[in-house]
Amino acid sequence: MERLRRQLRSRAARSRGPEWREAPPDYRQRGTAIAGILSVLFVGIGLILTNDFNRDQLAQQQKASQEQQDLALKGQRADRFVRAVDQLGQEGEDKLGVRLGGIYALEALMREFQADENMVIEVLCAFVRSHAPWNEEPSITPATPDVRAAMTVLGRRPDPDAHIALDFTNTTLGLKRFNLPGASFRGVDLSVATFSDGVLPRADLRATDFTNTYFIRADLHGANLEGAVLDGTRMRGTNLSGANLRDVDFLGADFTGADLTGADLTGPRARNLTTAQLACARVDAATRLPAGVAPPAPDAWQRKECAVVVD
Known about the structure:
Keywords: Membrane, Repeat, Transmembrane, Transmembrane helix. By secondary structure, this protein is mainly alpha-helical. The protein has five helices and no strands.
C-alpha cells in the first residue's frame, strides 16, 4: 500500500512540470535590496539633519546681524539727540538758525522713534520755559522765533494722548498770529498768554487753562474747548463757529464781536456764563446756550458799541 502511494505522488509531480517546484531563496539579492533601501534612508536623514543645521546657522547669523544693526541704530539715535540738544543750547541771536535746526532735528527723532517722544517733549518744554519765563510786565512780550518753533513742534506732536503732558508752567507766551490748524494743547496751562490773530481751527484745547489769555480776532472755528477755563479770557472778534464749549468755566470771559454760530456752550458743568457776556456776540439758531442765558439780538454784534477794540 505504501509503495502504491509513493508511485502516485511521483506521477503527480511529473505531470505538473518542473516549474511547480519552488526555487531556493536568493539571500544575496535580498541583502542587496535591503542595503539599497537603507542607504537611501540614511542619505535622506543626513539631508534633513544638514538642512536643519544650516537653517539654525542662518537664523543665528541673521539674529546676530540684526542685533548689530539695532546697536548701531541706537548709537546713531543717541548721537543725533546729543547733537540736537547741543544745537538747542547755543545762545545768541547769531545762533538762531542753529537752535531752529536743533528743534526740527528733535522733531524728526520724535517722529521716527516712538520711544524718544517723551524725552524730546521734556527737552522742548524745558526750552520754552527757560526762554519765555513768567514776567510781571503788563504787556506780553512776543515770543522769539525759536520759542514759536518749539511750540509748533509740540502742538503737532504725534499721538498726543500717548505720552506725557506738556508743561508750560511759569511762562508768558506771546504767540500772536500763531498758525497751527489742528494743534493739540489739551490739558495745558496756557494762562496769561496771547494767541491774538492766531489760526487754530479744529484745535484740541480740552481742559486747557486760558485764564487771562488773549484770543482777539483768532480763528478757533471747530475747536474743542470742552472743560476749558476761560476765566477772564478775551475772545473779542474770535471765530468760534461750530466750537465745542461744553462744561467751560466762563467767569469774566469777553465775547464782544465773537462768532458763536453753531457753537455749544452747554453742559452739566458749564458755569459763570451770563446774558451780558453775550450781548455783543453773534449767534444763530444752532447756537446752544445754558438754561437762563438769553441770546443777544440777531444784529447786536454789528452795533457800534460792539466793535472790537484791542487793549
